[in-house]
Amino acid sequence: MKYIIISFVAVMVAAVAIIKAFSGKANKKENAIIKNADISFFQKLEVKLKKFLSHWQVIALLMVAYDLITTAMSYFLALWFRFDCKFSSISRMYLDAYVKFIPFYIVIVIGVYFATKLYHSVWRFASFGELIRTSVANIITAIIHIVGITIFLERMPISYYLFGAVIQFCFAVAIRFGFRFVLAQRRKIHAADSKKRRNVMLIGAGAAGQLILQDSLSSKELNSKICCIIDDNPNKWGRYMANVPIVGGRNDILVNVKKYDIDSIFFAIPVATAEEKRDILNICKETGCELKILPGIYQLVNNEISIKQMKDVDIEDLLGRDPIKVDMTEIFEFLREKTVLVTGGGGSIGSELCRQIAAHAPKQLIIFEIYENNAYDIEQELRRKYPELNLVVLIGSVRDSRRLDYVFNKYKPDVVYHAAAHKHVPLMETSPCEAIKNNVVGTYKTAKAAMLNGCSRFILISTDKAVNPTNVMGASKRLCEMVVQSMNYISETGKYDLLPSLYAHFESDDEIATDTAVLEFPKKKTEFVAVRFGNVLGSNGSVIPLFKKQIEAGGPITVTHPDIIRYFMTIPEAVSLVLQAGVYAKGGEIFVLDMGEPIKIDTLARNLIKLSGYKPDVDIKIVYTGLRPGEKLFEEKLMAEEGMETTPNHLIHIGKPIPFDRDEFFKELTDLAEISYNNDEAVVEKVAQMVPTFHHE
Q: Which of 175, 261, 447, 455 has the fewest CB atoms within 10 Å distance of its CB?
């Protein structure tokens, strides 16, 4: 026993020396300061001890002491097990060999552990690397023990060698990885105490639901528990997935939300149709629970199903309409290696156009925008996402003839998407001249520059408000469609002499631009088309951002009329339609999206309140303010005279152009531009004269 005590003391002294060597260099400067400081001996000793025994060093010394004891115990226990756990049965020869060899072996073990840095690891983060080093160290010491005690003292029983090495390894691993386990359990207990666990209902007992369930069980960060599962398949009712009950179908959602005290609902059916998704989510939103949904089926195909992939349910998920399916191959072939110009490229529609165009390998993308902040934002986004993209961002107005002519002459775009426009209905009612200047005159000048500089296609972004318009904005967009149809006629016939020169920022700007361009007579025609769609969810000026701001402010939500309805589509859908129209264009068409059934704005507002976790008319009030100037209860997609033609995409239709006198239209357009630039209030009467379907209220 005395040999063991001596070795214990020797090893502890050696350990202190080694630790001091490790920390001495780092504290050399501090030690010099302490030495020269004007303080008492005991104060100096106290400071030195605090410097010397940092937290990790104390832990290391405790580990050394633990390894001293457990190393001695390991091989004694091995001997004890060999002789049936009876100390009196142990052979004196074997016991003497053990007692003589173990002090030297302890020193060797501590040395090997130091060499393999087992006393310098941060064990609260112990991982596979630490396990490998612990294993290597114990294999080395076991070999040393076998060779040393056999050669110098006595050949021991085979079970002694085997059990001793295994027990020593278990002791070494237990203290090191047990430390991490205890800390992890303490963190879990603390997290459970500091934050109430959230109960979750999972909708979908299919492959996606199973992956979400497995992820929730293995996730250490998720402080939630899936309590029950909903699935419309009756064969699954009453059964279990990972000990979680499948309690019924969609009609059982409300009952089980109360039964299991559900806080969140996860919708995990990526293959559900739009109608199925809408119906189920409409039930879920009545519960007041937090709603999460998988973005799409591609996560399931790519094996990317996890709770982190889930997103909040948006109002778009409640529209109940399948998304527009567009042949992206055709679009890619159309845009590849072409120079594309997007006017109004910083707006909600224009910026999404730029994103999708950038993804289809154009030769060059030109963003033309008057608002520099929007232009900067989309530029930074595209440069970050597509570093190889040939991107040009230009500031300018579509009302500036010289600027437009400079841009078209320098860059020679092949395709133009004209998204620049004033779109806010009430504001255009109070500023009708600005609607004409920017929308009508701006479209004319951009289209004219495109045609005279040999652009292949010009696509106008229009709106369903152009159909039987009751407001200035809608009437101005109808005039834009007439401009596009007239420009297509000029391009086909080559009657460039019919083109008028409209008012510009500077005197004679348009004449200079026209004369310069006509000198280089365009040899190829430009195909002009318009794309007409309804309200875009989330766009600037749409009701969704307004409603969200009103909800954040605590209400009330303002709805103009309880019966007002609108057609809705998402921004990506609108842009896909525009890109597809560029592929289908032959010249003069007005493309129209079949947007399904219209939606009541009142219903939209109530759904948004419920998705935000509130109750309509209880937590958030809804106030009806009356129709605004120029606003009507419903929007139409096509004028009755236009009729319908189909395209390869059954959700995209073509309206037949309404015939009108183009010579007379250009003359009236000249008068309209003059009236608008003179800020004459008679501009509305002139618009009504040019657009027979305009019924201003």
A: 261
CB-based contacts of 350, cutoff 8 Å, min separation 6: 342, 343, 344, 367, 369, 378, 417, 419, 420
Say what the pTM is.
Answer: 0.60
Radius of gyration over every alpha carbon of the chain, rounded to an integer in angstroms:
39
| 577 in Cβ contact with 533 (< 8 Å) | yes
* DSSP code for 436: I
Which pLDDT does position 512 carry in this prediction? 41
Helices 543-552 and 601-611: angle between axes, nearest 10 degrees: 40
How far is Cα 49 from Cα 53, in angstroms, rounded to an integer?
6
Q: Which of 268, 329, 319 is nearest to 295 (CA)?
A: 268
Q: Are 588 and 488 in contact (CB under 8 A)?
A: yes
Residue 563 confidence (pLDDT): 81
Distance CA(211)–CA(246), nearest Å, equals 15
Query: What is the C-alpha separation between 43 and 403, in angstroms, rounded?
Result: 80
Is a pLDDT exceeding 70 seen at residue 1? no
How high is the pLDDT of residue 412? 93
Collapsing DSSP to helix, strand or coil, 437 comes out as helix
Q: What is the pLDDT of residues 99-129, one digit of tens each?
A: 888 888 888 888 887 887 776 665 555 566 6
- Quote the CA–CA distance of 628 and 561 in Å, as a whole number: 10
Q: Which alpha helices (H) appear in 585-697, and where do they start and end?
A: 601-611, 662-677, 683-690
β-bridge pairing 557-559 and 244-248: unpaired
Asked if the model's pLDDT at residue 39 lies above 60, the reply is no
Q: What is the mean pLDDT of the chain?
A: 77
Q: Nearest Cα to 610, choosing from 315, 200, 236?
A: 315
pLDDT score at 514: 45
Name the 3-class secondary structure at 240. Answer: strand
Q: What would the two tokens of residue 600 be? A: 């009541």
Neighbours of 612 (CB within 10 A): 16
Buried b (16+ CB within 10 A) or exposed e, 28-48: eeeeeeeeeeeeeeeeeeebe
- 252 Cβ contact partners less than 8 Å away, ≥ 6 residues apart: 230
**E strands present in 45-134:** none
Distance CA 299, CA 505 (A): 52
- Single out the residue of 133, 111, 132, 138 nearest to residue 18, CA to CA: 111
Q: Report residue 111 as tokens.
A: 């040395």
pLDDT attached to residue 194 = 45
Mean pLDDT for the stretch of residues 187-211: 72
| Structure tokens, 366 | 């030109």
Cα–Cα distance measured from residue 87 to residue 2, given in angstroms and rounded to the nearest whole number: 19
Q: Does residue 431 sit in helix, strand or coil?
A: coil
Reported as a single tens digit per residue, the pLDDT across 581-634 is 778 878 888 888 766 667 778 878 887 887 777 788 888 889 888 877 666 676
Q: What is the pLDDT of residue 42?
A: 43
Residues 341 and 315: beta-carbon distance below 8 Å:
no
